Each structure stands twice: as structure tokens, then as C-alpha cells.
Amino acid sequence: MAAKRTIPTGKGVSPPFWTPELTKLDKMVQERKNERKRDALIRWRRKVLAGTALGRWKENVAKLSATDSASWNPVKSIYAPRPLTLLLLVVDGHPPSKRKQAQALANMRMARSTKAQHAAEMKMPSTRRSTFRPITEAGLGVALRELSSGTAPGTDEIQCEELKQLGRASRRHILRLFNYSLRAGKVPAKWRQGIIVPLLKPNKPANSMASFRPVTLTSTLCKLMERIVARGVRDWIEDNLQSQRAGFRPARSTLDTLMKVTSAVRRRKDGEKTAAVFIDCARAFDSVDHGCIVK
């Protein structure tokens, strides 16, 4: 509770019209002990803030141009209708309860199994495991710095900002928890639970289940350990991936693939044609057997 009261969460982006004068007034309000003088400073700060915001607005309006596409962005943000982002279903003329909507979404997703019909069962490798390498304080520090602020927590309600503010003693407790989990091959039951939130896909109707993409909010502690483990196995994975693959790999992007396609087109001889096949698997993550991928 103390952490939630004292540690700010979110990205903490300041308004674009914030000035050093407003920062100074904020500091003066916090330091002023006399209640009467403090209230007077607060009233003055509100007046300065309103004047600064109005001046910033007039400045932006003066820069608007009908031929500049960037000028239409603030206009659209004010006057454009907001698309419906909540699931809206009607059954027999009445909207179903939230529980029934959640069950319908779950039934639709479960209809496409990630287990292939004739796929072999995944088994533990018979070879000896590699030597266990415990997570170090340095590795934990790097992973903490890479955590994104302003993300939604899981069922444990632990924020990324709270983890970043932990002292050395608390970080050592987390290290012991992580290393025990990896050494024993066990994770807390809370880490295997998540909150599934359906998000509306861009430009899709809100009255269709297929228009929503489920996003699972999991434990921040679990994601922190997963980040450290992913960094540790990245070298092994890189050696087992095809060189043509660029997705989800460090220092690579779609530009690498585009360059290879462009080079293949330019290398063709006069009179020859180049053909390309593009495959987009719908719900690939839901339908591809994970065991086959690992194998």
C-alpha cells in the first residue's frame, strides 16, 4: 500500500506547455508550511497554468494550415467520432451479461486448438541438461531498466515502477526467488494466471467476436524473469534460425527481407520474370502446434 501511495506509475509525460515558472511554483507549494500562504500560491499557480495553456493553444491555432496534413491531427482528435471499443453483442434482442460475453469469446478461441491432430507428445530431453547458471545482480539490473513504464499489471497488481524502485536487499530476495524457480523448474501458481482483455482491432466492427484480439495481462515478476531467460538463450536460438528470417530478432527488421527480395529481382536476366508468394496465416498463433515448432 505504501508503494502505491508514494511511487508514481505511468509514463509521466509532462504537458508541452509546461514552463520553468510552473515547476518553480510547484516546488514552492510543496515547501510552503503556512496553509493560508499555500492556498494563495495554489490560486496563483492555477492562474499561471490557465494563461500558459491558453497561450500555447493560440500559438498552435495560428500555425494551422488547410494544406498541412499534420494540422488536421488535433482537429480530428477533437471532432472525429470515437469508435466503439467495447464488445457489443445482442442475443434475442437483449445484450448478454458480461459473463456470457466472456464465455462466448472463450468458446470461439478454444475452437481452434494449438494441438495438431497427429502431433507427437512433447517429451523432456533425455540428454543431460547444461550447467545451471544463476541470475546475477547485474543481469537483474539490466532487465529492470528495460521494463516499460505505464504497462498494466497482472493479477498480483505489481507495477513495473514499483520493481524499479526496489533497494538492493529487496532485489536479492527476487534473485533468490528467480534462481530457485529456474533450478527447481517450478513457478508460483500466481504466475500461471492472467487477466484476458479483449481489444478491438483497428477498423473492425465491435459487434463481432472475431474483431477482438485477446491480450493476457500476466505477472510483472514473471515477465521480468522471462526477459532474463530470453536474453540467456538468445545466442542458442540465433544459431538455430535460418539466416533469411528477420522477424523478432535483434538488429533486424523487414528492411532486411525487402533488400533480399529487391536483390533477387535485380539479379534476374533479361526476359526472365520474378514470382513471389506471400502467405498470411489467419490466427497463426492459435492454430500452429507449438510442439512442432520446438521440434
From TrEMBL:
Annotated source species: Trypanosoma vivax (strain Y486)
Superkingdom field: Eukaryota
Name of the protein in its database record: Reverse transcriptase domain-containing protein
Domain Reverse transcriptase residues, every copy: 206-290
Alphabetical list of InterPro entries matching this protein: RT_dom
Pfam family, one: RVT_1
